[in-house]
Design a protein that fits this description.
Elements (H helix, E strand, L loop, with lengths): L1 E9 L3 H13 L5 E4 L15 H10 L2 H6 L4 E8 L6 E5 L23 E2 L3 H14 L3 E3 L4 E7 L2 E7 L4 E9 L6 H5 L4 E2 L5 E10 L11 E8 L4 E6 L4 E9 H7 L3 H11 L1 H6 L4 E2 L4 E6 L1 E3 L7 E3 L5 E2 L7 H21 L4 H28 L7 H11 L6 H12 L8 E2 L2 E2 H12 L12 E4 L5 E9 L2 E10 L2 E4 L2 H9 L6 H12 L5 H20 L3 E4 L17 E4 L9
Parallel strand pairs: 1-2, 1-9, 2-6, 3-12, 9-18
Antiparallel strand pairs: 3-4, 3-5, 4-27, 7-8, 8-9, 10-17, 11-14, 11-15, 11-16, 12-13, 13-14, 17-19, 20-21, 22-26, 23-24, 24-25
């Protein structure tokens, strides 16, 4: 049997379901097929999310369904990292205090800045069923046996049920199977020296390290002498506990994975305390955890989304954010292609360039994060390796300074680092390394925009199912979008260059138009934009006598970093 569709999606996980749901939402006339080789629900690792996903779920119309499942609300994370046993909290909301008093809640107020910790068997099933409820045809327990190819064009998919599906567009969301990616012979780049393995299991009735509000908690990221442990409650009774180890260390131990896993968990005082009344499931799972990014994410009529496009180390919980945000962008590109809004090559290039940049940025950020791990005997030598991977010939000291000043960023015009607020991230890194965080704008009095040698370009903004194109500038890997707060700040610097005048202009812009809280948030975004503009080389910062200097700014208003105040009580 042959079937004709507008879009055929390989894989019904979060990336495939996200693309399918958004396509169906914004153009209900589209005929969409989702081919999934498994029968849902099925287990999958990768349970900890970031707030970006909540906003995508809301756009899909699935947030209320996910909320109704009662997953723990992720307020942030508690870290034991670096060269100290101190515990640090990275919270998504101010002071880490959740005001939720009942559930299910609504996507308003604080909940717009929190995330979920999900049992993937339940979560993925919710999303796939949501796509089906919007009119998508879902084929479970069905695999792709053959991809029909003509040059850079996909002509059809031969399925395990003997049918052939043909479509105008194809999306590969098949995870590390990379079914289309392999058929189209797209190479993988591994821009990292980190090669880890993951060992994990699920525990029943483990205690939560902390309960915040009604159903809120933090994940625990706990460094070991070699590697680290994740502790992620995914339900009231069920907790995912995993161990990340360098592959080389694992081979040296010459032990079975379960031996290393249970010995390590028993030796950690916090995990041992939280699991003293818990029982674990029978099966210990393992997988390799090597970061990679595909060299191309789009072709004539196909796209890569999710983990087949790229994968980054899970230390910062950004894997699902990368998968679902990339799938969202693919859906927007297909909608724009159908409407003929912009040049097809530009739309494909925007997705491929932008999303590859996001993945590479996170890989490099994860590498830098690991330099703060005590398992690395010489952090500066490792920093030199990261700089070398970026094509830079630096001494260890130069590389460490380069990274500390934001060298792990592949800028696509954002002010955040790996989905984390940039100022707060630098403060957290500082707490791990014991070295004072570096801010490019601190102590500077004047700022000059430098775009004369940049190439004029366009940047895509995604909203309400449509792509809007705005002017941007590109220099090497870096993009300056003349839109949102970043663009507003850049335009302001054409008129005002002193810190005092910038501050006055922001206040004048807000007067009568913003509440005090809105003004404080806008000011924080301007400061983050200014820091990013200087770090990326779009603005030069200088000091002039008798001028007001830019002070040192603490963590972002929308997230906070502080010493832990609760988990340590477990051990007293």
């Amino acid at each position: 049997m042959n079937r004709e569709f507008d879009v055929a999606i390989i894989g019904g996980g979060p990336a495939g379901s996200t693309a399918a749901s958004l396509l169906a939402k914004y153009d209900p006339k589209l005929k969409i097929a989702v081919i999934e080789r498994e029968k849902f629900p099925r287990e999958h690792v990768g349970e900890s999310q970031l707030p970006l996903i909540s906003r995508i779920l809301h756009e899909m119309g699935a947030w209320d369904k996910v909320e109704a499942a009662g997953f723990p609300i992720k307020v942030g994370g508690t870290y034991r990292w670096g060269r100290t046993d101190d515990l640090w909290d990275f919270d998504f909301i101010k002071d880490g205090k959740l005001n939720t008093t009942a559930r299910p809640g609504t996507f308003t107020g604080q909940r717009q800045n929190t995330a979920f910790q999900v049992d993937r068997a339940i979560y993925d099933d919710i999303l796939l069923k949501h796509a089906a409820s919007l009119g998508c045809e879902v084929y479970e327990s069905t695999s792709v046996r053959e991809v029909l190819r003509d040059g850079d064009r996909v002509e059809g998919l031969v399925l395990s049920n003997e049918s052939t599906i043909r479509a105008r567009y194809y999306i590969d969301a098949s995870g590390n199977s990379g079914i289309l990616r392999r058929t189209m012979e797209i190479p993988l780049d591994q821009p990292t020296n980190l090669q880890n393995i993951a060992i994990w299991n699920y525990w029943n009735d483990a205690d939560w390290a902390v309960t915040i509000g009604y159903g809120g908690t933090r994940v625990q990221i706990l460094a070991q002498e070699t590697g680290w442990i994740w502790f992620i409650p995914v339900g009231r009774q069920r907790t995912s506990i995993g161990l990340i180890l360098p592959a080389s260390y694992y081979k040296e131990q010459n032990k079975r994975p379960e031996e290393i896993y249970y010995e390590t968990l028993a030796s950690d005082k916090i995990v041992a305390k939280l699991t003293e009344n818990a029982t674990h499931e029978d099966t210990v799972r393992t997988t390799k955890d090597w970061s990679y990014v595909a060299e191309r994410l789009a072709g004539e009529n196909w796209f890569l989304a999710g983990e087949c496009a790229g994968f980054a180390d899970p230390i910062l919980s950004a894997g699902m954010s990368l998968s679902q945000s990339g799938a969202r962008e693919v859906a927007y590109v297909i909608l724009a292609l159908d409407r003929g809004d912009f040049e097809p090559d530009w739309l494909r290039d925007q997705y491929s360039h932008n999303h590859r940049g996001h993945i590479r940025q996170h890989i490099r950020f994860a590498d830098y994060w690991y330099t703060a791990h005590g398992a690395f005997p010489d952090l500066r030598v490792h920093a030199q390796t990261i700089a070398g991977d970026a094509g830079l010939d630096m001494t260890p000291e130069q590389a460490w300074q380069w990274l500390g000043q934001g060298g792990f960023i592949d800028s696509n015009g954002g002010t955040d680092i790996g989905f984390f607020g940039s100022l707060a991230t630098k403060e957290l890194i500082s707490s791990f390394t014991g070295e004072e965080a570096f801010f490019a704008i601190e102590g500077k009095t004047h700022f000059k925009l430098e775009i004369e040698d940049a190439t004029k370009d366009w940047v895509a903004q995604l909203s309400n199912g449509r792509i809007t194109r705005y002017r941007s500038y590109r220099r090497g890997q870096h993009t300056l979008p003349m839109v949102n707060t970043m663009g507003w700040t850049a335009k302001l610097l054409r008129q005002e260059q002193s810190y005092a005048d910038i501050k006055a202009a922001v206040k004048a812009h807000a007067t009568g138009a913003m509440t005090v809280e809105e003004y404080r948030f806008f000011w924080s975004q301007v400061i983050k934009s200014l820091e990013a503009l200087v770090s990326y080389g779009w603005v030069t910062a200088s000091v002039k006598p008798d001028s007001e200097p830019c002070p040192r700014f603490q963590a972002d208003l929308d997230s906070t970093v502080h010493p832990n105040r609760d988990v340590a009580n477990l051990l007293t």
